[in-house]
Amino acid sequence: MFTIASNLAKDNLRAQKRWTENVTDIAREAANRNPQFFTEAMHIHTTSPQGQFEVKEHIAFCFTGNKMKAK
To answer: How far apart are CA 49 and CA 69, in angstroms?
Structure first.
């Protein structure tokens, strides 16, 4: 069941062409190479409306499978 869900999620990402399947690996490697990267990324996520929307959309999609509408 988990494999099916994972493959469906990967197919969805490929269709959207928004994020690569290994985006978390890329982000982790970038953060490990440059500790300032993580600090700056978190600052953007917490202070910009776009960053806050991305976080909320990500959480909503991961836990419900639904995208939030922009407010």
So the answer is: 14
